[in-house]
Write a structure and sequence with these properties.
The complex is a heterodimer of chains A (333) and B (322). Chain A has 333 residues and is an all-alpha fold. Chain A contains 13 helices and no strands. In chain A, 72% of the residues lie in helices and 0% in strands. Chain A is flat, with a radius of gyration of 25 Å. Chain B has a single domain, classed as MetI-like (MetI-like fold, Orthogonal Bundle). Chain B has 15 helices and 2 strands. In chain B, helix 3 packs across helix 15, helix 5 packs antiparallel against helix 11 and helix 7 packs across helix 8. Chain B has 322 residues and is mainly alpha-helical. In chain B, strands 1-2 form a two-stranded antiparallel sheet. The chains are: A mainly alpha (333), B mainly alpha (322). At the A-B interface, helix 1, helix 3, helix 4, helix 5 and helix 7 of A face helix 2, helix 3, helix 5, helix 6 and helix 7 of B.
């Protein structure tokens, strides 16, 4: 044993070194994958951006007609049609994501505070599996319930015939609408925010809220002013995660929002919420059968590139927000 | 409640001083809406589960589960969803087999080695970016990569030099990416929670790092890893976009090539999610009854996976993000 010692140690050292390199290479492969993803998607998307310039992001014309013109491009590569103004999709994505995240944040804050400090024990015990279940239900099931139950309900009961007539020359109102999309999406993104916020509120040191109580404020105030504020970085992180989820939600939204490339007009008043729309991610799903048509496929990759950039910015923003707040408050993780 | 109040410091203390303080109207409204939010979440979950149960019992039959889907306008002849069910199971197994070792490997490297630290930081945010990337974007990126001719062994050659780019292999690989961040996160947390002296004890016994990892740290963190894997499987089972783009979402599982087993993996197919999608009013099948039945089975699988997570985490700290 003594004679073999140094040699074995050396060999061991080498296996350890090799394991480190192997695992490190595996981890670095993630970075390589992201680099590849960005490079591939942008290279493929380039013709669409290059042809339209900044007008790509602008409004103009009927997007569905533009897309079918692209789809039916002549087969000669020099005659490919690329003209596209993607504004309705960008607008719908921002609109649906934005409203859902705002609603989801409010709902999840309230639910998290309820769970941490006010719920009776049995209710807290029920809410944990409930939140986990809501987070785990596949989006296609949300979509199915949306399109078979909620959309017909809105189409038949909520939207009056006069309302349908008032915009019948512009758009058909059948219940598939941004409102249904927003409602279902809010239910989908709330659970993840609740889970993160509950964990964050729990990690607020008891002495902090006790201090507030000692100053004579009630339970609600103590939690809202001290607890929520201390947990702010985690709440921001949760909202960003939820935004990324909402941005990428394709299947459910393509099922319940009517999938019409239409930019709902806020000037229509309440009707606005009943108007259909289509988001970027839903557009890619709808167009996935035409990916092999070169100009059409390239247009779809352009939408994907935009989503990719947005989600990368969100990750970066989340990191930045957490870092800047870490000094003053409790950091997540 | 009283036992709970004692275990939770602030709640216990605060509820005792409740009598002495004043509740303004705003506070009362806030408290009421907090109750409402909690009750609303319960109601939504109950509504979804009960409605799916009702529809499931109404439309599900053994015949549907055990018959192959067929093309046909007449719904009584369009068969069941045996193939999508097999597809879901196969795809989940493939993706998990890829994601679990890779995810654990990355987590081990990040917590136990992590040098150079710049690279470790970059990998950390890289995993976060993968987690934030929409699955539909991952899907069409996968299509781009796996249509390269030299990767045609993973699917099959559609035209000479160009791979078809859609198969169980390909879909499984991209699917593993959506499970990866969950597994990395859970495994990292589990490894972090092992006290430093455990590692030091192992080194003191003459073990090197990699055998400490294999013999001590991984066994100690297997619950955390198990949770991550189960959560990842839930994600995989529920994803539709990747299956639509990368598995072809064909009616039946459609093997390609001559070697049994391998031909299945190289072939196209569908899963329960795409079956539901295609049978909903937006798809071509247009049979809501069958969509409900398949969605019910899908929901059962998801609930079962949730239950597994519950079993694994039982008796540990009541973390809500798990």
């Amino acid at each position: 044993m003594a004679a073999r010692g140094p040699q074995t140690a050396q060999r061991r050292d080498r296996t350890d070194r090799r394991a480190e390199l192997l695992l490190g290479a595996l981890a670095a492969a993630v970075l390589l994958l992201i680099a590849f993803m960005i490079a591939f998607v942008f290279a493929k998307a380039w013709p669409s951006f290059a042809h339209n310039g900044l007008a790509w992001f602008g409004a103009g014309g009927n997007l569905d007609e533009q897309l079918s013109a692209i789809f039916n491009s002549p087969s000669d590569p020099s005659d490919y049609v690329y003209t596209l103004h993607a504004w309705p999709l960008i607008y719908a994505t921002a609109l649906i994501t934005g409203i859902s995240v705002v609603l989801g944040t409010i709902l999840s804050m309230l639910a998290a505070m309820f769970i941490v400090d006010f719920a009776p024990g049995w209710m807290r015990a029920t809410l944990q599996p409930v939140v986990r279940l809501l987070a785990a239900v596949p989006s296609v099931i949300y979509g199915l319930i949306g399109i078979l139950v909620i959309v017909p309900f809105f189409g038949n009961q909520v939207i009056s015939a006069e309302r349908k007539e008032s915009v019948q020359y512009v758009i058909q109102l059948d219940g598939s609408s941004i409102l249904v999309g927003v409602l279902v999406l809010t239910v989908m993104i709330t659970p993840i925010m609740v889970a993160i916020s509950v964990d964050a509120l729990r990690s607020v040191p008891a002495t902090w809220t006790e201090g507030a109580a000692a100053l004579g404020v009630n339970r609600w105030r103590a939690l809202r002013t001290v607890g929520l504020r201390a947990a702010r970085p985690a709440i921001v992180a949760a909202a960003i995660l939820a935004t990324a989820r909402a941005l990428g939600e394709a299947i459910m939204l393509s099922m319940v929002t009517g999938s019409v490339a239409f930019a709902p007009n806020p000037l229509d008043g309440v009707t606005f919420f009943f108007e259909p729309a289509r988001t970027l991610a839903a557009q890619i799903v709808d167009g996935s059968e035409g990916l092999s048509v070169k100009p059409f496929g390239e247009t779809m990759y352009a939408f994907a590139a935009l989503l990719l950039v947005s989600s990368a910015f969100l990750s970066f923003g989340g990191w930045l927000a957490r870092r800047s707040m870490r000094k003053y408050t409790l950091a997540p993780r | 409640m009283s036992a709970h109040a004692q275990s939770r410091g602030p709640a216990g203390l605060l509820s005792r001083v409740r009598g002495g303080d004043s509740w303004s109207i705003g506070d009362r409204i806030g408290l009421a809406s907090a109750w409402a939010a909690g009750i609303l979440l319960c109601l939504i979950a109950a509504a979804i589960v009960l409605y799916m149960l009702y529809r499931g019992f109404q439309y599900l039959s053994l015949e549907l589960i055990f018959s192959h889907p067929e093309a046909g306008l007449d719904q009584s002849k369009s068969g069941g969803f045996l193939d999508p069910l097999q597809g879901t199971l196969a795809l989940t197994v493939i993706a998990t087999l890829i994601a679990a070792p890779v995810g654990v490997g990355i987590a081990v490297w990040l917590t136990e080695y992590g040098r150079p630290s710049g690279l470790a930081r970059a990998v950390e945010s890289g995993v976060e970016i993968v987690a934030g990337t929409p699955s539909i974007v991952l899907a069409i990126f996968g299509l781009l990569v796996f249509q390269q001719g030299f990767l045609s062994f993973l699917s099959y050659e559609a035209t000479p030099g160009v791979a078809f780019g859609r198969s169980f292999f390909v879909a499984g690989m991209i699917m593993s990416l959506i499970a990866l961040p969950l597994i990395v996160g859970a495994a990292r947390e589990a490894l972090h929670s092992i006290p430093r002296h455990v590692r030091e004890a192992s080194y003191a016994l003459g073990k090197d790092r990699i055998s400490t990892i294999r013999r001590v740290l991984l066994p100690a963190s297997r619950r955390g890893i198990g949770t991550g894997v189960a959560l990842g499987m839930g994600r995989i089972v529920g994803d539709t976009a990747i299956v639509v783009v990368l598995l072809g979402a064909t009616l039946q599982n459609d093997p390609h090539g001559g070697i049994p087993g391998l031909s299945f993996l190289q072939g196209t197919g569908s899963t329960l999610t795409t079956y539901v999608y295609n049978n909903s009013p937006v798809g071509e099948g247009g049979s809501p009854e069958k969509a409900y039945a398949a969605a019910f089975v899908l929901l059962l699988i998801v609930i079962a996976l949730n239950f597994v997570v519950d079993l694994i985490t039982r008796g540990r700290g009541p973390s809500w993000t798990r």
